[in-house]
Structure prediction request, 436 residues.
Amino acid sequence: MTTPLDNFQQDWKRFEQSHVWHPYAAMPAATPPFAVSSASGVHLKLEDGRELIDGMSSWWAAIHGYNHPALNSAIQSQLKQMSHVMFGGLTHKPAAELAALLVELAPEPLDQVFFADSGSVAVEVAIKMALQYWQAKGATKKQRLLTVRGGYHGDTFGAMAVCDPDTGMHHLFSQALSKHYFAPAPSCLFSAKWDDECIAEFRTLLQANHRQIAAVILEPIVQGAGGMRFYSPEYLRQVRALCDEYGLLLIFDEIATGFGRTGKLFAAEYAHVSPDIMCVGKALTGGYMTLAATLATREISGQISHNGSAFMHGPTFMANPLACAVAIASIKLLLDSPWQSRVAEIESQFQQGLEGCRGLLGVSDVRALGAIGVIEFDEPLDMAWIQPLLVEKGVWLRPFGRLLYAMPPFIIGNQDLKKIITVMAEITQLVSQNHG
Prediction:
């Protein structure tokens, strides 16, 4: 009688396809995943020997690429001291040093740091902070949030509840989710002239429901997995002013945009406004380990902790020392590098290289901001033939919905980036021909 381990040893890839469930996929997956044997720099090496240029930074996290000596060294050094210790009642220097770095870099007055396991959990923490803050102030009716359509904040239940309720990936759970208020997605484009109509419905919703609203939550400047939309910094300034007018908390989800992706260290810097709570993750550890953080003001922590009350959240692997150590190394590596000029060059190449796709049949928009290049189509893309073709052409991209996009590591060279852009244009030509 063969055991699962016997089957694994005989053919691990076949075993994997029968037993391992992948994200946003059926079981088994309609298209078998590509097996990676190693990664270095901006290249992924597959088990069959093919090499791919990584245009995704492993879901936007590996900003320094793979197998970086400075990050490897940080994790190896920490491993010799301590791989993990519970954070309840204990602490350690890597957590304190990482917190110091985050407080130094974050917009004032964010100076309280709560570590979490992932971006979704960081959003859960932010929501709970907002709700517990108002409970501590005796405003128990403030149980709802206000956000905008087209957003994405994670896959856990609290985070799902503030993702787009209709076009988002979580529509199956809509009846089980907490109910919040949704304004239209920001219609004002990043570089367009401001029109006050862009904020009108948001303002109306806030005026009518502010007594029930605990906080506003937004992805600043870039709506990521909800559609890769880039909107005007003035929108954030208007939202900040409205939150101040009605005394509401403002949460910025910088999980995808933080640490340089948009050309600013944090996307909110485009608007020169600060939130009351901010979530960071993804690039925090340079893609090495799962770690996120929720930063808040001392006013929030003080109100929640009034009379010794505890904030009710505590992940088992909170502030894991290995993750903290590599996050410190990643942030220092970023700050010591010419990341601004690198990201600006990536943006320039995207703008020049993708512009030829504008106007093609089936293409609705082409846009770039920082190290993000996007081609948006009129109809959803057929992953069944596009994904294998991308691999065949030597590029790793992960299109979704109507979007073919790239968010490469900041260290990518001009030739590798040119190859990604060329392949994106070739795929777009094929989609356009099929559309006709």
Summary: The two ends are 55 Å apart (CA to CA). The longest strand covers residues 110-116. The chain has two domains: 34-67+338-435, 70-335. Residues 70-335 form a domain with the Aspartate Aminotransferase; domain 2 fold (CATH 3.40.640.10).
